[in-house]
Structures are given as C-alpha cells and as structure tokens.
Amino acid sequence: METTQKRSSFTGKIGFVMAAAGSAVGLGNIWRFPYLAAEYGGGIFLLVYIILSITLGFALMCGEIALGRRTGLSAIGAFQKLNKKYSFIGILASIVPMMILPYYSVIGGWVCKYLTMFISGNGGATVNGTYFEGFIGGTAEPIGWFLLFLGITALVVLFGVEKGIERVSKIMMPVLVALTIGIAIYVLTLDNAMEGVKYYLYPDFSKFSFNTVLAAMGQLFYSMSLAMGIMITYGSYMKKDVNLESSVHQIELFDTGIAFLAGLMIIPAVFSLGGGEENLGKGAGLMFVTLPKVFDNFTGGEVVGAVFFLLVLFAALTSSISLFETVVSVLSDKFKWKRKWICLTVFLGSTAVGIPCSLGHGIWSAVSVPKVNGGSMTILDMFDFASNSVLMPIVALCTCIFIGYVIKPQTIIQEIEIASTFKMKKMFSFIIRYVAPVCIILILGFSVLEAVGIITV
Ligand code: PHE
Question: What is the pTM of this model?
Fold first, then answer.
C-alpha cells in the first residue's frame, strides 16, 4: 500500500529565502543584467527594473509561491488540484525547466572548465585568440565538463530539500555575496574604472524608450525564475508559518542586489581594458573572452579570475539545482518512485538533450535554424529561445489569468494571510488581473519578432 509520504520542507524562512534566491541569482544576473543596463540607459534602466521588480515581479512571485504552498504540490499537481481544466498550465510550466536544465548545464560546464584553468594557474591560456570557440567546439571535453556540472547538481538534489538544497544554498549564497562585493571593490581600483561606473550608472535619458521597459521586463521574469514551476515547487516546501510576503521582498533584494553589483564589477573591469563600450559584447563572449583578458592584464588577476569563476559557478549551481529539483518534484508527484531513481532519470534525460546542445558548437554546428535577417540559431540558442521567449511568457500569462480570473486573487491572499497580513494585497490583485497580462503579451510579441530577426530590440 502506498503510504502518503510527508512532503519535505525547508526548515524555516532563511532556508527558503536562500534557496529561492539561489535559484533567482544565476548566469542571468552576472552576464545579462550588466550588459542590458549599460545598453539601455544605465541609471534609468536600473530604476525601471527596480520598479518592475517590486510591482510585477513581486505579484507573480507571491502568486507562484502561494500556489505551491496552498496545494503542497509542484506545478502540474498544483494547477490540477485547484481546477482540473487548467492542469495544462502546469504541464507547460514543467516543460520549461526540462528544456533549460540541459543547456544551462552545458554553460555550467564551461564555467567549471574556466575555473580549473584559473585555479591551476593557466588562466592566461584562455586569452589566446580563439581559445573559447576552440574549447566549446570540441567534442569530448565540453561534454565531460557538462556531465561533471550536471552530476554535482544531481548529487545535491539527491540529498533532498533540507539536507541538500537548503544546506548548500545557505553556504553558497552568503559566500557569493561576499565574493561579488570583494571583486567589485578590487575592480573599482583599476585604471579607468570610474569611466565604466559612469557609463553604467549615469542616467542617459536619450537611451530611454519603450525598449528599455521591454528589455527590463524580459530580464525580470528570467532572472526571478518565474513561469517555470520553480517557485511553485519551492513554495510547496515552505512551512505555513513563514511570512511569504517578506520572503519575496528578500528574494528580490538578493536578486536585484547581485545583478547591480555584477554590473559594478563587470562594466568597469571592461572599461579598464581600454576602449570601453565596444568591448561590452552580449552573452558568452563577455564572460569567457573579454573578462579573462581583463584578469590577464593585472597583477593578481589570476587569483581574481579564479574567485570570479567560483562565484559564477555558485550562482549557476544554485540555479541548476532549482531546475533539477523542479523536474524531480514533478516526476515524483506523478510517479511516486524513489528519489534516487527519479534523480537518475532526470540526469540521463538531461544528458541526452545536453549532448546535442554542446555538439551544436562543434561537429553538429550545421544543425541550425535560419533567421529572417540572415543570422541563425545554434541548438543551444533554439532551446533558449523556445523556453525563455515563447513558453515562459505563455506560462506567465496563463498563470495570471488563472489566479486573476479562475481561482481569484482572494485564494492567494488567504494563503499569504495564514502567517501575517498581506500588506500589498490591493496592488497584488490589480497587477495580476490587469497590468501583468498586458505587459506579458507585449514581451511575447516583441521577443518573437526579435528572435526571428524582424526587429532589433
Ligand atoms: N534566474 C536565473 C538567472 O538569473 C536563471 C534561471 C532560469 C535559473 C531558469 C533557473 C531557471 O540566471
């Protein structure tokens, strides 16, 4: 006979906040936020981002965590339990982490490789010409690093919510904050750094446009790990007496704080190389090509480089753990197998998808999707696009409609008020019902047009 297992939980508020913040703070904060902020008007981007975070982001995050805590289930079960007709939202939400985990781990593998290079004193070698392309274009090597990263993730998840995830997050997150502050201070002492600070923070109103808001919104959903069932799953492990509203504020503070500090460390560092703006490429190039050059240029850079990649590794690991756990939790709600078999299944499934993502930069690079403007997407880009730009906004929109019109905001408010009064409940209902759906439709429309190359945002 199947006995109902007691659901695992975080021990208390700190454990919950550290784990959820661990999920939120990831590669997106470190390489994407600084670039976007610099590109879209510095100080004003920051301001727009903060406003969106405490309104839109706040409402959606409260909604998702409360859905999880109320039902005690992960995404599929949560929607199903509240209204059978809408379980498809849970299914869609659960597909997102399954798509992100493999390619996120491929990038995590690259971080492991760079960390070892810097620790072993070979950081200088990564600076040579096409080192990065050469490495990711390889066959066995990047796959090996990918498996290592995925393996570590699986191991932490195997230990469970409290003994694995909570424990690891409680160590890694404070260390991450300390390292980020440390490197930012070091970078600010470099020549030319102040030019970079000015570029990053000075509000340039001429760069403010509709696109600024759009870019900030897109970044916000991804950065707060919304619309993929993660916060529902973590909410289902949250105890009823924990103050949900203030936990969300703390997670936001963590997420935005680290993103802000990452900018303060990366942009001045790039400026100190000389040249400035044009070196601030988007994405992988910035982290794996430009920054190693910066580290190579200064005394003590090898050590700072190692510390930097350690920090990035922690950020990436706590995020991949949340992705892995979400998939595990969906499967275990459904199949009730032993945790170790589920972990093994998720590991093998992600390996099967991750290997093509890795090979897409090398021997399988011919497999790509053409864009309207003549560019093309690699396999990794395709997964990134399908999950972040298409599925996530759809799930976010459905979630808002579900909360706003099907179960009604009151259901969420009641859940939050179990522990304490919900101070922002009026704002919450208004945003979920009216503001968020409109914003999300805009993001969806524009990101699809951009990805196929019709517009450039
Ligand atoms: N929120 C993470 C970041 O900012 C990204 C992430 C997305 C993490 C999806 C987990 C799941 O990088």
Answer: 0.92
For ligand 1, atom 10, the nearest C-alpha belongs to 319
Beta-carbon count within 10 A of 314 CB: 23
Q: Within a 13 Å sphere around the CA of 303, how many CA atoms are in the beta-carbon half? A: 7
CB 28 less than 6 A from any atom of ligand 1: yes
Report the nearest atom of ligand 1 relative to the CA of 255: 4
How many CB atoms neighbour CB 85 within 10 A? 9
Q: Of all protein residues, whose CA lies closest to atom 8 belonging to ligand 1?
A: 319
> What radius of gyration do the chain's Cα atoms show?
21
Q: For residue 165, give the DSSP letter.
A: I
Domains and CATH numbers, the chain: 13-359+379-440 (1.10.4160.10)
And the tokens for 144?
């090996």
pLDDT of 267-290, one tens digit each?
A: 898 888 876 676 776 667 788 988
The C-alpha atoms of residue 326 and residue 233 are separated, in whole angstroms, by: 6
* Residue 448, pLDDT above cutoff 80: no
Instruction: Indicate the pLDDT class of residue 165, thresholds 50, 70 and 90.
Output: very high
pLDDT digits (tens, 9 = 90+) for 234-244: 999 999 999 99
Among 208, 277, 285, 216, CA closest to 31: 285
For the chain, what's the residue count?
Answer: 457
Compute the distance between CA of residue 229 and CA of residue 65 in angstroms, rounded to an integer. 9
Helix, strand, coil percentages (3-state) for the chain, rounded to 5, are 80, 0, 20
Q: What are phi and psi of 377, to 5 degrees?
A: -110, 140
Residue 371: how many other CB atoms lie within 10 Å: 15
CA–centroid distance, residue 192 to ligand 1 (Å): 32
